[in-house]
From TrEMBL:
The modification N6-(pyridoxal phosphate)lysine is found at K294. This is Amino acid decarboxylase. Belongs to the group II decarboxylase family. InterPro entries: Aromatic_deC, PyrdxlP-dep_de-COase, PyrdxlP-dep_Trfase, PyrdxlP-dep_Trfase_major, PyrdxlP-dep_Trfase_small, Pyridoxal-P_BS. It comes from Amycolatopsis albispora. Keywords: Antibiotic biosynthesis, Decarboxylase, Lyase, Pyridoxal phosphate.
Amino acid sequence: MHPKLTDDLTGLPELLTATRDAAERALTSLDTRPVAARARASGAAPMPATGIGTAGALARFEQRWAPWFSGSAGPRYFGFVTGGATPASVAGDWLTSAYDQNAAAGGDSAAIGLERETAGWLAELFGLGAEHHGAFVTGATMSNFTGLAVAREWLGEQAGISVTDAGVGALGRVPVLSATPHSSVYKALSMLGIGRERLSLVPTLPGREAVDVDRLAEALEALDGQPAIVVANAGTVNTVDFDDLRAIVALKERFPFWLHVDGAFGAFAALSPRHRALVDGLVEADSVCVDLHKWLNVPYDAAVQFTRRRDLQVAVFKNVAAYLPPPAGEPDYAHLTPENSRRLRALPTWFSLTAYGREGHQEIVERTTALAARLGRWVADEPRLRLLAPVRLNVVCCTLAANPTRERVDALVRAVADSGEAVVTPTVYQGTPGFRVAFSNWRTTESDVDRLARALDRAL
């Protein structure tokens, strides 16, 4: 054994303690260190030939890289839709690496059983039925990819074609309809060979990001009976708008289509009695995307995808080899997801759900939505800003009240980041440059909202 490996194995308890101490320093400083970090310009260092051991690597990391990492795990990182990591999920993530299970096949490990249990808990959390089967993937992009891959196979089934054998070209032009699709949907269509241009945008309701269901019906009618894929939104990125899922489901009585719901973070509305009606009809979806490193507050990367048609999912993703069990009965995850090698990313979620339960995660959802409403009221009362849309859930989308050019909005966003107090994300909504503030971190409190408001005030 290499002498550095021997030294590290001998000193493993001390190394784990030192790593824990480094993690503690990082987490306990989130409230005081700058939220945004401007990465310093530096060239890549040469790869060590001999190595300096884990203790040396830790010291070098803390000197060379750690100071330039953002505070994205903290309570005032309001960019994109970024959660933090609850203490329980951090423990689960550390143990994920320590146990180092490949959660692809279950012949010699209980890892797959834990993932199945956790996916079942999540289905219950989101109000899905027993017919929905879940699997963990890396993020919303792969969750949408997996759901749409199953949808593509369903289209083949309608035409009497096995797309997994004949290829997507056998389908001809594939109609995909959506009103405000996330960028990952386009990416998934590209990877699936369907093509970005096959997505037809359906008009939205006036002043909304939600689909006009009557116009969707017209688009389906124009297909003259050709099966299609409909991608519905349970929470858009800019304004957290929701398509009327129940009304879309009703269209299935008249038209043949696969309903994929992108509920990356909006599906968490199901946890709150006040907002649960927003996802009414989700249980009827054919496939569902949910991103867990957002509002569930587990470490990157973790998402889950659900589908009703596990048989079609196996047809797409089955992995046949002499050393693997065939996909009979309850299939292994090697037959259900794009990856053959899969870390046990269900474990942080299992820890967090076990530690805090439904009630704990409901509290996170309800507190952060209340904080978004608090900021929304402040923006409405601030004459130099204006809301671009109502605060429906956990995102505040707003802009400058006067002359909201891209340059002026970007300058405001940079000034907030440069203050070290917070991070917000620039965007464009209905042609108007603006910025959005997303609340999803479990640590965020009213004082963090007030600090953001003061940073905005100084930057205006």
